[in-house]
Amino acid sequence: MHTTFAGKRIVVGVTGSIAAFKVAGWVSSLTKEEARVAVIMTDSACRFVAPLTFAALSGERVHSALFAEEGAETIPHIQLAREADLLVIAPATAHTIARLAHGLADDLLTCTVLATRAQVLVCPAMNSQMYNHPAVQENIEKLKGYGYQILTQESGRMACREEGPGRLPEWELVREVMLQILAVPDLAGEKILVTAGPTREPLDPARFLSNRSSGKMGYSLARTARRRGAEVTLITGPTALACPPGVRCVEIETAREMHEAVLAHCRQASVIVKAAAVSDFRPATPFAEKVKKEQADLQLSLEQTTDILKELGKLKKKAGFLLVGFAAESHNHVAEGEKKLKKKNLDLIAINDIGSVDTGFAADTNQVTLLDQDGISPLPLVSKEQTADLIWDHVVRLLAKKNKE
Which of 46, 160, 249, 266 is an active site residue? Predict the structure, then answer.
């Protein structure tokens, strides 16, 4: 696995802001994802949230004093700096940013930052006027010059009742940036096209034909590919999901729109993953007006949509991309997958059992079987995000093999 927190040493530096209480939730989430979390709190931070809170959530002693007698023989700022896989400062106040920008080492947190070789992620949080002050902006630029990563500010209403930039970013974004930093960039330089979600084929202005796809698997593939360094375009049907950070999203609705979008982007891609559940049929003649119940004909005439995956299979040799397909099957999974692998001229197919509660539509977990020219690779039942990483592991091996040919 390339993009999980499991076993990683994350040092979290908490400074004196009302937003410190939000970071307690971050520590809890990191611990649940099996990260080893060490928390450093400044004196000001301890006035907002009790160290006991972070100790309980992390399962470790909270560090605050530079000259604490307990553990003094380990030289805490050196030990924490050496152990860190990533050092996150959140919330980072204007005062802390200024001290870091000028290389001060007057407390445990600043000493640890100066001593670490790990990437430092700074999440500023302060009043909008403070954030916009030229001195703060100059200090932030200095930190960028030192190689620290500064997470883009969010705008919104703050505790001081003002609106504007300065809000602490939400955990979903912070988590994604942290995972990008920790990931092995083995997809760097690749341009990846992923399709996701269902399509909707209009019957009339109020009704459509569709399927139960949630888009979760395709979005997980796009998100994890971006973490691993790829340039990712996601062509997505209608879903309730937010576009993954750093991913270019192209929204479509019908199978025809999906077909047009894929053809417009496929020749720039080095890898294409067709995870969308594209409708196989559409109403032959959609109605311009809503059909009234008493006027409805109970027989519906359908026509087939274009087989996008088959078209890509014909294009892939000339265009030079690696083609990955999905097969959502309810029986004879491997046999049906083998047929589709050959018929559609795929490099890899992920066969998904849609009949199980744990692996069907809208589930957060998945268990797929990978099939390529070299054989079958069953994957374990894990989250869709972990499944996506395992698929990318396989794709990385296929790319290496292709490059040797």
Answer: 160
